[in-house]
Recover the amino acids of this structure.
């Protein structure tokens, strides 16, 4: 389906008598606005797999973003957030113990099954803690050099400027918080307490602006077919609002309810 | 294993029709504090009603940190978190004694020895005594009497804030409750919040307090 195909079908859906009103430039603007409206409507009702399937091209999961001084740059294609998890890297300094694969570190909080990494950012060799006893812990490998890094991931929740005062609303490593911020033209997230990296699931802005005159680009490379048909209904809805055609608006509303 | 975050999530889901999301108005710390308090009440009630039975899953072990030694008074001080209240004459300490866990010291307070002076009643006694009290301003200590050489003690008990027990790791260590206490705890906190949710939240600091017409803005 090209932009032209899309427009042809869209014109069938509304009264052709309005075609003079809707030239190509107006149609492009209408489609773009309706696109955002539809995407937001679907975002607000992401309850079931159906909505996720329709928006599949707009969903980015497990995107790693680096952090500098407690701030992370928001990706350019960011529209809405689903979830952020903070990654923390605790340094474990230790000395070799008496037994094979035994190491000791005072006041450590390691537990059996924890994974330790040789690199601070988790990209090095991984070791597993096989046993813990008092200040000793055992790894699956002998003669490991100190220090190692214990990487833990915690889900974060948002904090808002007007709700920060509560003493029970603080950020801790186990329950970290983020807030959106702008510095100059950069949109960023302020992260507290500062992690070394974050993992983000978010919804992108629509990846392609539909041009109703274009006959070469296949829109199915960017959107699912069901989404495009639903978008046509949304365009008719916006169009009937703009032309004050309330009969058409109501009948489109019914169509959308019947074909969500 | 029952983790604190699982209980927090369960309560949050109970209050939001099965879907807990990031923007829940219930902060983790807010719910956690309600959970700690409910746990203390439920365990205390259980023991008061059902007699002296303690499920070991309610109890935490502390390797108490040595703080100070007072040779003049034959006393050794340790750091220890505060215990819950169980009945009119019992608190949450279950065991204070040798680190092997089977050699308890005697509780001084139970015998009426609430203070220690130069005329110590322990003078001719070879037993070790202990107590937990506020001997310094705003600071409670666990004190072991009658042997200044004691360096390590094991403390087992039911504490007010289980996550503040030294060495407790919130993301991996079992929260000290059993399934029965967990169930009652979720119900108690859930009902408590439902009752209070009748108050409409005032989201924005805009000098318009919806709930208190006496304040400016109305």
């Amino acid at each position: 389906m090209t932009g032209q195909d899309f427009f042809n079908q869209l014109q069938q859906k509304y009264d052709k008598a309005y075609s003079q009103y809707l030239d190509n430039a107006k149609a492009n603007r209408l489609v773009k606005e309706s696109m955002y409206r539809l995407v937001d409507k679907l975002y607000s009702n992401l309850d079931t797999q159906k909505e996720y399937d329709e928006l599949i091209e707009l969903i980015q999961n497990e995107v790693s973003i680096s952090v500098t001084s407690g701030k992370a740059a928001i990706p350019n294609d960011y529209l809405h957030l689903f979830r952020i998890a903070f990654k923390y890297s605790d340094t474990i300094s230790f000395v070799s113990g008496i037994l094979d694969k035994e190491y000791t570190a005072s006041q450590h909080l390691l537990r059996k099954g924890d994974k330790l990494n040789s690199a601070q950012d988790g990209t090095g060799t991984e070791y597993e803690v096989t046993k813990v006893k008092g200040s000793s812990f055992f790894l699956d490998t002998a003669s490991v050099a100190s220090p190692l890094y214990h990487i833990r991931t915690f889900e974060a929740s948002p904090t808002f400027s007007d709700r920060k005062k509560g003493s029970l609303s603080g950020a801790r490593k186990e329950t970290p918080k983020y807030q959106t911020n702008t510095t100059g033209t950069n949109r960023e997230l302020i992260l507290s307490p500062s992690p070394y990296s974050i993992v983000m699931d978010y919804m992108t802005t629509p990846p392609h602006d539909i041009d109703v005159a274009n006959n070469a680009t296949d829109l199915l490379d960017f959107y699912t077919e069901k989404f495009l048909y639903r978008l046509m209904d949304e365009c008719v809805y916006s169009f009937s609002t703009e032309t004050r055609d309330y009969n058409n608006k109501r009948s489109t509303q019914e169509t959308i309810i019947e074909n969500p | 294993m029952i983790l604190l975050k699982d209980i927090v999530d369960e309560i949050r889901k109970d209050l939001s029709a099965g879907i807990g999301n990031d923007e829940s108005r219930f902060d983790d710390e807010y719910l956690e504090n309600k959970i700690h308090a409910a746990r203390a009440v439920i365990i205390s009630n259980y023991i008061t009603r059902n007699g002296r039975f303690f499920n070991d899953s309610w109890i935490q072990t502390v390797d108490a940190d040595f703080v100070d030694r007072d040779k003049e008074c034959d006393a050794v001080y340790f750091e220890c978190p505060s215990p819950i209240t169980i009945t009119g004459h019992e608190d949450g300490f279950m065991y204070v004694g040798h680190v092997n866990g089977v050699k308890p010291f005697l509780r001084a307070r139970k015998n009426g020895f609430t203070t220690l002076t130069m005329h110590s009643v322990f003078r001719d006694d070879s037993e070790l005594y202990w107590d937990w009290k506020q001997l310094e301003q705003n600071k409670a200590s666990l004190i072991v009497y009658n042997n200044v050489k004691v360096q390590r003690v094991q403390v087992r008990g039911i504490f007010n804030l289980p996550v503040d027990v030294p060495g407790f790791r919130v993301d991996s260590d079992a929260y000290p409750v059993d399934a029965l206490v967990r169930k009652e705890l979720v119900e108690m906190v859930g009902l408590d919040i439902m009752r209070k949710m009748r108050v409409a939240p005032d989201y924005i600091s805009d000098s318009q307090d919806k709930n208190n017409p006496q304040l400016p803005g109305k």
Observations:
- The CA atoms of residues 8 and 28 of chain B lie 7 Å apart.
- Residues 60-157 of chain B form one domain.
- The first strand of chain B starts at residue 60 and ends at 63.
